[in-house]
What we know:
The chain is mainly beta and 465 residues long.
Amino acid sequence: LAAGVLTAGFASTPLLRATSRAAAPAEPFSVRMPVPPVLRPAARLPGCAIYHLTMREAPVEILPGRHTTVRTFDGSFPGPTIRARRGETVIVRQTNKLDVPAAVHLHGGHVEPQHDGHPMDVIAPGDSRTYVYPNRQRAAALWYHDHAHHLEAENVYRGLAGLYLLTDPEEERLGLPRGEYELPLLLRGANLAEDGTLIYDATDVQGPDHGTTLVNGRPTPYLPVAARRYRFRIANVSSGHAYVLKLRDGSEMIQIGTDGGLLPEPVRTGAVSVWSAERADVVIDFSRYPVGSRVYLDNTALFGGETRDVLRFDVVREARDDSRVPERLVPLEDLGPAATTRTFALSFDLATGRYLINGAVFDPDRVDARPRLGVPEIWEITNSDTRIPIPHTFHTHLEQFRILDRNGVAPPAAERGRKDTLTVHPGETVRIKVRFSTYTGRYVFHCHMLEHSAHAMMGQLQIEP
Ligand code: C2O
Ligand code: CU
């Protein structure tokens, strides 16, 4: 079997169960959850902020008292958070001091093709490149990560990922929790040896990152919180692992946003699901717990009802709370009637061990679809991998889309927003509506289980005027 065909939830047959080489790491909840630093601009001009980032190897502490060498942006694991405002351009000068090529993609960003981090458009070791992000889109939790062809899975696994929080006045007006009460939770797994070495095993059928759960780069940490509302900007930055998050006491969370920004209205739910590359914007109200409580967040996306620790919230103090979660958030614009339908068939070819979209692997010289600027389309995405049940996550660059239905049924409320990545389960057909209305040129779409895209499960769009 080829690399990373399965995720934890699907490693059901004993035949396919992987033998993990990872050591049992730290005691759960023995380290405090860090918050990635917010990147400071190197310069500010009117309407524009300029940042410098250097991709380099760095030793970090993941397991307590051990050093792990990872690939970083500026030595930070995960990368520093970039904060941007709608209408204000962000310019990022990236310098590659790694010994491998890298291409930096702003996932979910509306950017011109030459700034999109196309897989063939890499920064060679020793070189620099400037990316321009105009931020002419709604407030959203975007993220930046490596996209160099064939290398992205390992590069992201080794650390090349960071959050990019774009805000706008519409969002700020809502009164959601902010400041120290708005925290990123970057979720992923890591296989760590006893001595702290990060093991990348691309042949692991469960995916290389099904090991220890890391939150913001530390294993199953704890987070001291006040007894009030918090807003968590959750991003799944793993290469292929799924998280279905539940509070162990079964109590409610409020999902207010998804990949491309805020939902039209809050969704009260017991389970928040983020597959590879998806984001969830979630408010948890700790005021229902007395000071001294410990509240556990679990991942339940594993086979056979197994759950895994993710994070423990320790309610340590009272605090004033003037935040709100309004019943109306941000309305969804109407994309208009679709004029074209396209189909995308996702499959794994057992005979050749290749991951295919419409029967083909990625060819940088081939264009697979030519959508017209401003013309809405319906895409039907089918996962035919039922013999070996392999889920796929479908992502297109440049635009957010809407999920119309899954096997003919309207999607769950939390998926009725602006999406740029979606899971397609084995045997499922998902219909989406998408309208490219910003830039023309060449972009990619692909499976975001990065071991799959690294094996060329990817295609190209040429957006035509
Ligand atoms: Cu998150 Cu093509 O990328
Ligand atoms: Cu896939």
